[in-house]
Specification:
- The protein is an alpha+beta fold and 679 residues long.
- It folds into 6 domains: 5-87, Phosphorylase Kinase, domain 1, CATH 3.30.200; 94-312 and 335-344, Transferase(Phosphotransferase), domain 1 (Orthogonal Bundle); 418-479, 2-Layer Sandwich (Trypsin Inhibitor V, Chain A), CATH 3.30.10.20; 494-547, Trypsin Inhibitor V, Chain A (2-Layer Sandwich), CATH 3.30.10.20; 554-618, Trypsin Inhibitor V, Chain A; 621-678, Trypsin Inhibitor V, Chain A, CATH 3.30.10.20.
- Helices cover 27% and strands 22% of the residues.
- It contains 14 helices and 33 strands.
- The strands form 12 sheets. The protein has a 6-stranded antiparallel sheet with strand order 1-2-3-4-6-5. Strands 7-9-10 form a 3-stranded antiparallel sheet. It has a 3-stranded mixed sheet with strand order 17-20-18, with helices on one face.
Length: 679
């Protein structure tokens, strides 16, 4: 191959890597003058239509994905007996090389790598594609921290999951999900399981399950829980536990959901993303690298095995030839390496041969007597009988063959053909019943819709009236009704509320005019949403996030004229801290009662300042009426009231008071001097 020219365009260069079913070379596209990677199928498999179809499916599936984290496929072709792919060449090494060099990765680096792996997987899952072979060998690391996912050769559209063979499994045993082992079916959650195992291996330096052979590892995936990751934060260990649950419905729904959980855990721990280093020993771009094969543990290679039931104990032989993986400039290291397909018969223990011994004594065969000679008439009759038997035998064969051909033709042309029923507008239960009657299978995807009621079918793929074969898959889009404003807990961050709103197809927005005071929610945190949570709204509607403005300023209540105890009790009940200030005289308020407060009544106090000064009235006296009374009597009345008396003009006791300096009824401070005039 090296030095050759494929289809007069692609010149084959140095060997890059060799797998179980293909070999990758460095090459040059002579038409566009660019360096490429050329994956050539192994000649042993080129004549097998199933392998060729799988190889072509790799190109189609990868070509659908337009993501910077996916190794791009440029071309596909056949040159004589060579089937090949032309792909983007990633200079550097693989995650396996990085693990071999470091043993295990620290938490920031492991999270950065898994995020860059999950991002292209999320793009594949959005396109209804499943990778099915996520492992370190398929994670390429280039200069500048570039991480790309390669080998989508095992990708199958989710719509074709129903045709997965129930007798064969293809995937790397160290990373197989339990459902791949038990039923052979895969979906996006199978890739999530493999990514969880990949994260486990990066954090610990070894896969969770190892064994003497592939079958023992597969059984452990089915029957054992993945061990807890030691010496890492609880949030990181929980990521591995959730992604590697045996029950698919307990895992994140797809790579995008798992990626969101990884990002949330990293943000919670305050771990910044780091650049992924180039593996030690990766060849420079301008050098042609010779790769040295590395032995592989049979228990950790990619094999095709018979699905097993949980707890089943059928005997299996060890997998056959180990897969050798080239490793540039690094000593040979064992680990789960290249992809390998093994026939089912290779996994079944061959039956033990029956012992063959000499015949028992006394069973000596008797000598045969020479046959008697037959007459010509006997020979003629035997020939006629033999001819008759042959005629009947051949006639029977022809009749049976005709019946089989007829039945098979009817089944292939008419018996297996059905029509997709009209499902639009039907509720999900009725649509399911109609598909069962038509011998069709289904998958359901729910979408919000403004006009179609919840539970009714919006569309089907293929549409109604399309001819299909029994068992074909019909994708149903079922209405989830209008999106509902989600519930958010009071006090959460704005980013969390925005994520909840966006996840249901609505648009979050902030409006300071809608912000509200709250004594329970800190300032700047979420109080509630408008419209209120639980309200159905049209798709894409704006939902206002109401933020807290902190505690509402409270006005100082009016306590004028009240006693000190009454005023203090009312201010305490309103959340203020009352203190007594210097007393003042008031001609309108009795002594010992409140004249005013500082700040005045009605003033809005900020939450950080709640002190209110209470000013009480000093002791005062109401001036009594003494005009017309005798000087002696007037002096007694005024002095008894707490006032001082000054008598002028006539100081005799019998003199009459004709005038007083302060009119009767006025309030004056105690001990005020009152001048009276006697005559």
């Amino acid at each position: 191959m090296i030095g050759g020219l494929l289809e007069q365009r692609y010149r084959v260069g140095a060997l890059v890597a060799r797998g179980g079913m293909s070999t990758v070379y460095r090459g040059v596209d002579t038409r566009l003058e660019r360096t490429v990677a050329i994956k050539v199928m192994d000649p042993r498999f080129s004549a097998d239509p199933q392998f060729v179809a799988r190889f072509e499916r790799e190109a189609r599936a990868a070509a659908k994905l337009h993501h910077p984290g996916v190794v791009q496929v440029h071309d596909q072709g056949v040159d004589e007996d060579r089937v090949y792919l032309v792909m983007e060449l990633v200079e550097g090494g693989t995650l396996r090389d990085l693990l071999n060099a470091r043993g295990k990765l620290d938490v920031p680096l492991a999270l950065s790598v898994i995020e860059k792996v999950l991002s292209p997987l999320a793009a594949a899952h959005r396109a209804d594609l499943v990778h099915r072979d996520v492992k370190p060998e398929n994670v390429l690391i280039g200069p500048g921290g570039t991480v790309k996912v390669a080998d989508f050769g095992l990708v199958r559209a989710v719509s074709t999951a129903g045709v997965t063979s129930d007798t064969m499994i293809l995937g790397t045993v160290a990373y197989l999900s339990p459902e791949q082992v038990t039923t052979g079916t895969t979906d996006a959650r199978s890739d999530v399981y493999s990514a969880g195992v990949l994260l486990y291996e990066m954090l610990t330096g070894t896969p969770p399950y190892v064994g003497d052979n592939a079958i023992s590892v597969a059984y452990r995936h089915v029957n054992d829980e993945v061990p807890a990751v030691p010496d890492v934060p609880a949030e990181v260990a929980e990521l591995v536990r959730r992604a590697t649950r045996k029950e698919p419905f307990l895992r994140p729904a797809d790579a995008e959901s798992f990626l969101s959980e990884v990002e949330t855990a990293r943000a919670k721990l305050g771990i910044a993303a780091v650049d992924v280093p180039l593996p030690i020993g990766a060849a420079p771009a301008e050098e042609a690298t010779e790769h040295v094969p590395a032995p592989v543990s049979p228990a950790e290679q990619t094999v095709r095995v018979e699905p097993v039931r949980v707890g089943a104990g059928a005997p299996f032989a060890d997998p056959t030839v180990p897969v050798h993986r080239p490793n540039p400039l690094v000593p040979p290291v064992s680990g789960p390496q290249g992809t390998r397909a093994i026939p089912r018969a290779a996994l079944l223990a061959p039956p033990e041969p029956k012992p063959v011994g000499p015949p028992p004594p006394g069973s000596r065969p008797r000598p045969k007597r020479p046959p008697k000679k037959k007459t010509p008439e006997q020979l003629y009759e035997e020939m006629r009988a033999r001819s008759k038997r042959q005629f009947i035998t051949w006639l029977s064969v022809v009749v049976v063959a005709a019946l089989l051909i007829g039945i098979t033709s009817w089944w292939l042309v008419i018996g297996r053909v059905t029509t997709v029923p009209d499902l639009v507008g039907k509720d999900e239960a009725a649509a399911t019943s109609m598909l069962d009657e038509a011998s069709l299978t289904k998958t359901v995807r729910r979408e919000n819709h403004d006009t179609v009621p919840s539970g009714q079918v919006i569309s089907s793929d293929p549409p109604s009236g399309t001819k299909a074969h029994n068992g074909d898959l019909v994708r149903l889009v079922v209405s989830a009704g209008r999106p509902v404003v989600p519930q958010v807990n009071a006090g959460v961050e704005v980013a969390a509320a925005e994520q909840e709103i966006t996840s249901v197809g609505l648009k979050p927005q902030l409006n300071p005019a809608e912000d509200a005071f709250s004594d329970r929610v800190p300032k700047g945190k979420v109080v509630t949403l408008k419209p209120t949570p639980g309200t159905p709204v049209p798709i894409g509607s704006a939902v206002t996030i109401v933020l807290s403005k902190g505690s509402q300023p409270k006005p100082v209540p009016s306590v004028t004229g009240k006693t000190k105890d009454e005023a203090f009790a009312e201010l305490n009940a309103a959340g203020f801290d009352p203190v007594e200030g210097p007393r003042e005289f008031s001609d309108k308020v009795e002594g010992g009662r409140v004249i005013r407060t500082d700040p005045p009544a009605g003033t809005n106090m900020p939450p950080g300042n709640r002190q209110v000064t209470v000013v009480l009235s000093a002791d005062s006296v109401t001036v009594p009426q003494v005009e017309g009374k005798s000087v002696k009597e007037a002096k007694k009345i005024l002095e008894d009231a707490g006032l001082k008396v000054d008598v002028q003009f006539n100081n005799r006791d019998r003199a009459r008071v004709v005038n007083q300096s302060i009119r009767a009824g006025e309030r004056v401070p105690k001990d005020t001097k009152i001048t009276i005039i006697g005559v």
